[in-house]
Amino acid sequence: MESSQPRVASSQPKRYVHVERLNPASASSQSYLVADLSSGEAAILDPVDPYVSAYLARLDRAELRLVAIVDTHTHGDHVSGAPRLSRETGAPIVMHHDAPRACVRSRVRDGDEIVVGALRLRVLETPGHTYDGISLAVDGVLFVGDLLELGDRGHAGEACGDARALAESLGRLSSLDGQTRVYGTRTAPAEPLAWALERARRGLSAEHGARGGAGPRSFSMPADPAAFRVMEANLSCDTPSAPDERALPGEVPRIDPDALAAALRSERAPVVVDVRSPDEFFEDPLGRIPGALLVPLEHLAAEAETLRGIDAPLVVTCRTTARAVAAASVLAHAGLHDVVALTGGVTAWRRAGHPVERDVIEARDGADAARRFSPPPPAG
User: Is the full-model pTM beyond 0.90?
Assistant: First the structure.
């Protein structure tokens, strides 16, 4: 099947939204088929790898053409079926614009629309469970991933559960019709939004009370071997690596901005590795730490050997903390041990009053790195 990018919506009449739960009732996470039956076009949301063959058979029986594969966030508890489904059908993988995965072909922002026949799936950025969470709204239906059921608790290995961001996302969803039918990966399908939001708010309040307030939670790649391989597979758009005897990292060492500034002035200065996307690295108003090397998170494992050859400690950073800790964990798993994560990322660095670079011309080496680490264009 030819590959297709999600298209810009044109003026078309609304059609009936066909929603179908795809995974067995016993599955730990649910996936959904969303289709415009009149056009024969469909999208699959949050696919799970072991069920990909069943998805393909379902599409074939219904004579549906897959035009988009959406992961509502980077999953940490199961291997995403999106890469294999994309290879089998040619349909593009669609995710949040900052999702740390190289195989994402369509990166969406708040207000974008994914077109499936006459259906327009409107993208809502809804962080909280993870920093790269999105929800999709279409004609009285809302797909929320894990947002309303798991909230900011996250799974072992999922990035950046943030109670404050979750509260803001819940507030935003409350502006939608309370009778909107909600479909989550772990919730009863077609629950009214008003009920789901009330339950999520109660859970959030209980979490705040237990933790003593809102705010970003710490994140580490899971120490359990199976869980680590799941996250590693999802970040690299691959299948889980075979079991081995390598030690897995636990808590990642951190360094605060002031300590990093002092270290950069020392005789054995560390090398700063920024794992944001090239767009973020060059265009984020926050800027970047002077001299930082750009290695986007989705390409980090492939560049581990190159980084191993650097005769200096490595300090990994991103916009805040979550991806930096994930990246440091990936490097530790690859056998690089003199690696720490910058607490608070570039945001905290700038807030502490330390210098940043913003001029692209000053970062010629970084521009070369951005080109070197960019994923190849899709085949065909």
Answer: no
